[in-house]
Amino acid sequence: MKLAKILNDVGIESVAIIDDGFVIPLDMQRDAKVKSLADILYSPEPEKLAKSLIVRGVTYSSVGSAHFLAPVDRQEIWAAGVTYKRSKVAREEESAGAAQFYDKVYSAPRPELFFKATPERVVHPGAPIRVRADSKWNVPEPELTLVISPDLRIVGYTVGNDVSSRDIEGENPLYLPQAKVYHGSCAIGPFITLSGAIPKLTDCEIRLVIKRNKQVAFDGSTSVAQMNRTPEELVEWLGKDNRFPHGAMLMTGTGIVPPDVFSLSSGDVVEISITGIGTLTNPVG
Ligand code: DO4
Ligand code: MG
């Protein structure tokens, strides 16, 4: 089952099941214990609970005509880095003086994990992501994103974009927070595929298409099978000495890096698709 957050016809935020191209709205007033998408996701039987909230007797709208919001409630957004060889090699090349650190973190037991965004900072599907005004080299990072409950279960999967400034990160790794965390640098959505419905992860393809003036400027793909760590391992490290009372989302790193001559420009459109989940599309503002 896939779940999403929508803005309904009268501008009210709600939750829906996505099924076969249709948006099936849920009645979020029906069960006093269920107020948010997260309440469904963290329940013992999310699919059963979601089905019990289906609004009967309404015409379902199509996915193409719905207004989706990022499927985030109060979760912190975290990210892992250098989990694919492609990312390790790209960082080593961009940051000559610090290359050894990327080599070490790729194979060390402890992964690179960093805080990426608060829920308020997350860019909704279709809304503009941004590049930093003080950076000349910016890329999207298409990442399988884990939806994690407060008791650290992976309850679902979504699509994330860890938009990053490569020149700032490359100048000095201590600038990483500025390369990664700024206004418009984190997009998530539109759908969450519940854990029970995701295809075998190693069969999942991640694809990044960047369009400029309606032409394809970059098209690349990888497989989750290329990831050097498991989602469970990343969650275990994230949960070490940390608490997530509202749950968390964890971007699992990029395995696709456009060629070094490429940098995002205002007006580009970034599409990230992951098998079994869906496509996250954002223009660059
Ligand atoms: O260390 C730099 C960040 C790496 C990253 O975000 C990634 O590999 O996806
Ligand atoms: Mg990343």
**SSE series:** EEEHHEEEHHEEEEEHHEEEEHEEE
Strand content: 25-35%
- Assembly state (oligomeric): single chain
Bound molecules: 2,5-dioxopentanoic acid, magnesium ion
Largest sheet: 12 strands, mixed
The residue fraction in helices comes out at 10-25%
Could you list the spans in which at least 5 consecutive residues all have pLDDT below 50? Answer: none
Shape: globular
Helices and strands: which structural class? alpha+beta
Radius of gyration: 18 Å
Mean pLDDT: 97
Report the end-to-end length measured between terminal Cα atoms. Answer: 32 Å
Number of continuous helical runs: 7
The number of distinct β-strands equals 18
Folded structure, characterized:
The chain has helices at 37-41, 46-52, 85-94, 99-107, 166-171, 176-180, 231-238, and strands spanning 2-7, 13-19, 22-25, 61-62, 67-69, 76-81, 112-117, 138-139, 142-148, 154-162, 164-165, 186-188, 191-194, 205-212, 215-223, 248-251, 269-274, 278-283. The protein is an alpha+beta fold and 285 residues long. A hairpin with a 2-residue loop joins strand 2 (13-19) and strand 3 (22-25). Helix 3 packs antiparallel against helix 4. The mean pLDDT is 97. Residues 79, 81, 141, 143, 162, 253-254 line the site of magnesium ion.
